[in-house]
Amino acid sequence: MTHCELEDITMHLNTRISSIRRVLELRTIAKDQDKRVILEKIGQEVHTIDGLLDQFEKCVVRQKDLLKHLKELEGFFQEDVHDGKHLKENKPTHMPAKGQPAVHGRGPLGKSRLADVQPGQQENPRKASKNHIKEMQFITSPEFESIPQ
Q: What is the 3-state secondary structure (H, E, C) of 16-57?
């Protein structure tokens, strides 16, 4: 529901309430039983409309709280975007660029290091060294106690 629609509904309800109140003020004039039934129905309508207005006001308060929360989230997202742009623009030199192979050591291969490699000399790709865990046999309690401190 937009702000303009809410104002239009509120204005319509306020106009209707004021006209109903005018009729209620005229109630003292109406002593007839038929007119009294009509006035009671109008009184019930006033209570119903008053309840609707209370619901609208609660809805407006909830929407304001939600808007405040969303603005806070937008601020957090703007900070994240700013941090991401900063990281993108200030990438460390030891990080490989897109499509560039990762090099172990300091910095990517520069032109001077590429010139040092002779054309006949091929760079051997490093094989992933597998660290084998050496296993140890269990020792008995007497053997453990015989170990010097």
A: HHHHHHHHHHHHHCCCCHHHHHHHHHHHHHHHHHHHHHHHHH
